[in-house]
Automatic annotation (TrEMBL):
Superkingdom: Bacteria
InterPro entries noted in UniProt: DUF3822
The name this protein goes by in its record: DUF3822 family protein
Length: 273
Protein backbone atom coordinates (compact mmCIF):
# COMPACT_ATOMS: atom_id res chain seq x y z
CA UNK A 1 0.00 0.00 0.00
CA UNK A 2 1.23 3.48 -0.83
CA UNK A 3 0.02 6.81 0.52
CA UNK A 4 0.77 10.32 -0.70
CA UNK A 5 1.91 12.55 2.16
CA UNK A 6 2.84 15.75 0.33
CA UNK A 7 2.18 17.21 -3.09
CA UNK A 8 3.16 20.67 -4.35
CA UNK A 9 3.04 21.69 -8.01
CA UNK A 10 3.90 24.56 -10.33
CA UNK A 11 3.37 22.97 -13.74
CA UNK A 12 5.59 21.46 -16.41
CA UNK A 13 8.05 22.69 -18.99
CA UNK A 14 10.57 21.20 -21.40
CA UNK A 15 13.57 21.96 -19.21
CA UNK A 16 12.79 19.95 -16.11
CA UNK A 17 15.18 17.51 -14.48
CA UNK A 18 13.58 14.69 -12.48
CA UNK A 19 14.92 13.43 -9.15
CA UNK A 20 13.72 10.28 -7.39
CA UNK A 21 14.67 9.30 -3.87
CA UNK A 22 13.94 5.69 -2.97
CA UNK A 23 13.91 3.85 0.35
CA UNK A 24 11.96 0.96 1.85
CA UNK A 25 9.69 3.37 3.72
CA UNK A 26 9.19 6.22 1.28
CA UNK A 27 9.47 7.47 -2.29
CA UNK A 28 10.07 11.15 -3.07
CA UNK A 29 10.05 12.73 -6.51
CA UNK A 30 10.64 16.30 -7.60
CA UNK A 31 11.59 18.37 -10.62
CA UNK A 32 14.07 21.21 -10.93
CA UNK A 33 14.24 23.71 -13.79
CA UNK A 34 17.53 23.09 -15.61
CA UNK A 35 17.89 26.79 -16.50
CA UNK A 36 17.27 28.64 -13.24
CA UNK A 37 17.57 25.72 -10.77
CA UNK A 38 14.19 26.40 -9.20
CA UNK A 39 12.34 23.69 -7.32
CA UNK A 40 9.09 23.08 -9.26
CA UNK A 41 7.08 19.99 -8.35
CA UNK A 42 7.37 17.76 -5.31
CA UNK A 43 5.63 14.62 -4.09
CA UNK A 44 6.32 12.39 -1.12
CA UNK A 45 4.81 8.92 -0.76
CA UNK A 46 4.98 6.49 2.13
CA UNK A 47 5.09 2.71 1.73
CA UNK A 48 3.05 0.64 4.17
CA UNK A 49 3.70 -3.12 4.25
CA UNK A 50 4.96 -3.00 0.68
CA UNK A 51 6.18 -6.31 -0.71
CA UNK A 52 6.31 -5.86 -4.47
CA UNK A 53 7.94 -2.63 -5.63
CA UNK A 54 6.69 -3.11 -9.20
CA UNK A 55 3.06 -3.09 -8.05
CA UNK A 56 3.64 -0.19 -5.67
CA UNK A 57 5.33 1.83 -8.42
CA UNK A 58 2.30 1.35 -10.71
CA UNK A 59 0.05 2.59 -7.90
CA UNK A 60 2.42 5.50 -7.33
CA UNK A 61 2.29 6.48 -11.01
CA UNK A 62 -1.50 6.45 -10.86
CA UNK A 63 -1.47 8.84 -7.89
CA UNK A 64 1.30 11.14 -9.09
CA UNK A 65 0.34 14.35 -10.88
CA UNK A 66 3.56 14.68 -12.86
CA UNK A 67 5.57 11.43 -13.01
CA UNK A 68 3.56 9.90 -15.87
CA UNK A 69 3.85 13.14 -17.84
CA UNK A 70 7.63 13.21 -17.56
CA UNK A 71 9.49 12.10 -20.69
CA UNK A 72 10.81 8.66 -19.73
CA UNK A 73 13.56 9.00 -22.34
CA UNK A 74 15.15 11.91 -20.49
CA UNK A 75 17.83 11.46 -17.87
CA UNK A 76 16.65 10.79 -14.31
CA UNK A 77 18.64 11.09 -11.07
CA UNK A 78 17.85 8.25 -8.65
CA UNK A 79 19.07 8.68 -5.08
CA UNK A 80 19.07 5.48 -3.03
CA UNK A 81 18.45 5.92 0.67
CA UNK A 82 19.20 2.72 2.55
CA UNK A 83 21.41 1.47 5.36
CA UNK A 84 23.48 -0.76 3.07
CA UNK A 85 26.13 1.83 2.37
CA UNK A 86 29.65 2.51 3.51
CA UNK A 87 31.95 5.49 3.30
CA UNK A 88 35.40 4.25 2.31
CA UNK A 89 38.55 6.40 2.27
CA UNK A 90 40.00 6.62 -1.24
CA UNK A 91 43.22 4.82 -0.32
CA UNK A 92 41.18 1.71 0.52
CA UNK A 93 38.87 1.90 -2.50
CA UNK A 94 41.32 1.04 -5.27
CA UNK A 95 40.22 -1.40 -7.96
CA UNK A 96 42.83 -3.94 -6.94
CA UNK A 97 41.64 -3.88 -3.33
CA UNK A 98 38.17 -5.33 -3.83
CA UNK A 99 38.71 -7.50 -0.78
CA UNK A 100 38.69 -4.37 1.38
CA UNK A 101 35.37 -3.27 -0.09
CA UNK A 102 33.87 -6.70 0.52
CA UNK A 103 35.14 -6.59 4.08
CA UNK A 104 33.41 -3.33 4.95
CA UNK A 105 30.36 -3.76 2.69
CA UNK A 106 29.41 -7.45 2.74
CA UNK A 107 26.25 -7.07 0.65
CA UNK A 108 24.66 -9.52 -1.74
CA UNK A 109 24.44 -8.02 -5.21
CA UNK A 110 24.06 -4.85 -7.25
CA UNK A 111 26.98 -3.26 -5.46
CA UNK A 112 27.94 0.07 -6.99
CA UNK A 113 30.88 2.22 -6.12
CA UNK A 114 30.35 5.97 -6.07
CA UNK A 115 32.87 8.76 -5.63
CA UNK A 116 32.26 11.74 -3.37
CA UNK A 117 34.41 14.83 -3.12
CA UNK A 118 34.52 14.91 0.67
CA UNK A 119 38.03 13.82 1.64
CA UNK A 120 38.06 11.60 -1.47
CA UNK A 121 35.63 9.08 -0.05
CA UNK A 122 33.98 6.36 -2.08
CA UNK A 123 30.45 5.27 -1.22
CA UNK A 124 29.67 1.61 -1.78
CA UNK A 125 26.01 0.71 -1.64
CA UNK A 126 23.44 -1.93 -2.51
CA UNK A 127 20.24 -1.34 -4.42
CA UNK A 128 17.06 -3.37 -4.14
CA UNK A 129 16.80 -5.61 -7.24
CA UNK A 130 13.06 -5.21 -7.70
CA UNK A 131 13.21 -1.42 -7.40
CA UNK A 132 16.24 -1.19 -9.67
CA UNK A 133 14.69 -3.36 -12.39
CA UNK A 134 11.35 -1.54 -12.22
CA UNK A 135 12.87 1.93 -12.48
CA UNK A 136 15.31 0.84 -15.21
CA UNK A 137 12.40 -0.51 -17.25
CA UNK A 138 10.36 2.68 -16.95
CA UNK A 139 13.17 5.23 -17.35
CA UNK A 140 15.66 4.82 -20.18
CA UNK A 141 18.59 6.75 -18.71
CA UNK A 142 19.34 6.77 -14.97
CA UNK A 143 22.19 8.22 -12.98
CA UNK A 144 22.46 6.39 -9.66
CA UNK A 145 23.48 8.14 -6.45
CA UNK A 146 23.33 7.31 -2.76
CA UNK A 147 22.11 9.67 -0.05
CA UNK A 148 25.47 9.44 1.72
CA UNK A 149 27.15 10.59 -1.50
CA UNK A 150 24.85 13.62 -1.71
CA UNK A 151 25.27 14.54 1.95
CA UNK A 152 29.05 14.23 1.87
CA UNK A 153 29.27 16.52 -1.16
CA UNK A 154 27.09 19.18 0.45
CA UNK A 155 29.00 19.11 3.72
CA UNK A 156 32.37 19.22 1.97
CA UNK A 157 31.32 22.40 0.15
CA UNK A 158 29.96 24.08 3.26
CA UNK A 159 31.93 26.74 5.10
CA UNK A 160 34.13 24.95 7.63
CA UNK A 161 33.06 25.61 11.21
CA UNK A 162 35.12 24.94 14.30
CA UNK A 163 34.00 22.44 16.88
CA UNK A 164 31.56 19.55 16.55
CA UNK A 165 28.57 20.08 14.26
CA UNK A 166 25.80 17.58 13.64
CA UNK A 167 23.34 17.52 10.74
CA UNK A 168 20.18 15.59 11.50
CA UNK A 169 17.73 14.91 8.65
CA UNK A 170 14.33 13.43 9.51
CA UNK A 171 12.29 11.29 7.10
CA UNK A 172 9.05 9.32 7.57
CA UNK A 173 10.46 6.48 9.68
CA UNK A 174 14.18 7.12 9.90
CA UNK A 175 16.75 9.87 10.16
CA UNK A 176 20.29 10.42 8.93
CA UNK A 177 22.88 11.83 11.30
CA UNK A 178 26.13 13.34 10.05
CA UNK A 179 28.98 14.65 12.19
CA UNK A 180 31.54 17.24 11.11
CA UNK A 181 34.38 18.24 13.43
CA UNK A 182 36.51 21.27 12.63
CA UNK A 183 35.33 21.13 9.02
CA UNK A 184 36.09 17.44 8.49
CA UNK A 185 33.37 14.83 7.97
CA UNK A 186 33.51 12.17 10.68
CA UNK A 187 30.60 9.89 9.87
CA UNK A 188 27.18 9.54 8.25
CA UNK A 189 24.74 7.17 9.94
CA UNK A 190 21.23 6.10 9.02
CA UNK A 191 19.05 5.55 12.10
CA UNK A 192 15.83 3.54 11.99
CA UNK A 193 14.41 4.99 15.17
CA UNK A 194 11.90 3.24 17.42
CA UNK A 195 11.77 6.03 19.99
CA UNK A 196 12.10 9.84 19.73
CA UNK A 197 15.14 9.47 21.99
CA UNK A 198 17.08 7.24 19.60
CA UNK A 199 18.66 10.11 17.60
CA UNK A 200 19.48 11.88 20.90
CA UNK A 201 21.33 8.78 22.10
CA UNK A 202 23.53 8.72 19.00
CA UNK A 203 24.31 12.43 19.35
CA UNK A 204 25.27 12.08 23.01
CA UNK A 205 27.36 9.00 22.25
CA UNK A 206 29.18 10.82 19.44
CA UNK A 207 29.90 13.77 21.74
CA UNK A 208 31.51 11.36 24.18
CA UNK A 209 33.59 9.75 21.44
CA UNK A 210 34.83 13.14 20.21
CA UNK A 211 35.46 14.39 23.75
CA UNK A 212 32.98 17.24 23.37
CA UNK A 213 30.40 18.42 25.85
CA UNK A 214 26.86 18.44 24.51
CA UNK A 215 26.69 22.13 25.49
CA UNK A 216 29.46 22.85 22.97
CA UNK A 217 28.01 20.85 20.07
CA UNK A 218 25.80 22.36 17.38
CA UNK A 219 22.89 20.32 15.98
CA UNK A 220 21.30 21.38 12.68
CA UNK A 221 17.88 19.83 12.11
CA UNK A 222 15.71 19.55 9.01
CA UNK A 223 13.10 17.33 7.42
CA UNK A 224 9.74 15.90 8.42
CA UNK A 225 9.63 17.21 11.96
CA UNK A 226 7.47 19.81 13.69
CA UNK A 227 8.27 21.89 16.75
CA UNK A 228 5.46 20.21 18.69
CA UNK A 229 6.49 16.65 17.81
CA UNK A 230 8.00 14.23 20.35
CA UNK A 231 11.08 14.06 18.08
CA UNK A 232 11.81 17.76 18.43
CA UNK A 233 10.79 17.95 22.08
CA UNK A 234 13.21 15.12 22.91
CA UNK A 235 15.98 17.00 21.15
CA UNK A 236 15.53 20.30 22.94
CA UNK A 237 15.39 18.49 26.28
CA UNK A 238 18.98 17.27 25.92
CA UNK A 239 20.58 19.44 23.21
CA UNK A 240 21.06 23.13 24.07
CA UNK A 241 22.22 24.40 20.65
CA UNK A 242 19.76 23.58 17.85
CA UNK A 243 19.24 25.31 14.51
CA UNK A 244 16.50 24.40 12.03
CA UNK A 245 17.87 24.41 8.48
CA UNK A 246 15.94 26.31 5.85
CA UNK A 247 16.38 27.12 2.18
CA UNK A 248 16.19 30.36 0.28
CA UNK A 249 12.64 31.11 -0.84
CA UNK A 250 13.67 32.26 -4.32
CA UNK A 251 14.61 28.70 -5.28
CA UNK A 252 10.93 27.74 -5.18
CA UNK A 253 9.03 28.13 -8.43
CA UNK A 254 5.55 28.28 -6.88
CA UNK A 255 3.99 30.08 -3.97
CA UNK A 256 2.40 26.78 -2.92
CA UNK A 257 5.72 25.71 -1.41
CA UNK A 258 5.14 28.19 1.41
CA UNK A 259 2.15 26.13 2.58
CA UNK A 260 4.59 23.76 4.31
CA UNK A 261 7.58 24.66 6.51
CA UNK A 262 10.71 25.18 4.43
CA UNK A 263 12.69 22.70 6.48
CA UNK A 264 10.43 19.88 5.19
CA UNK A 265 12.12 20.17 1.78
CA UNK A 266 15.73 20.57 2.94
CA UNK A 267 16.69 16.84 3.01
CA UNK A 268 15.52 16.46 -0.57
CA UNK A 269 16.41 19.73 -2.27
CA UNK A 270 19.57 20.79 -0.45
CA UNK A 271 21.03 17.31 -0.15
CA UNK A 272 20.59 16.14 -3.74
CA UNK A 273 23.53 17.70 -5.61
Amino acid sequence: MIQKLLGTYSGENQHQKLYLEVSKEQFACWTVDEHDGKFQNFELFQFKNAEDFTIEFKNLLAQSQFLQKYDANKKVIVIWDNENAQLIPAEFALEDQAWVQNLVTPFDANLRQMSATTDDYSINFEMDKSALDTLSTHFKEIKHRHKFDCISKVLSKSVAKSGLNFHLLYFTEHCILSAVKDGKLQFIKRIQYQSPLDPVYFILNACEQFDTKIEDAQVNVAGLITYESPLYQSLIKYVPKIDVEEVTKNIFDAAQFTEQPEHYYVPFLKYSI
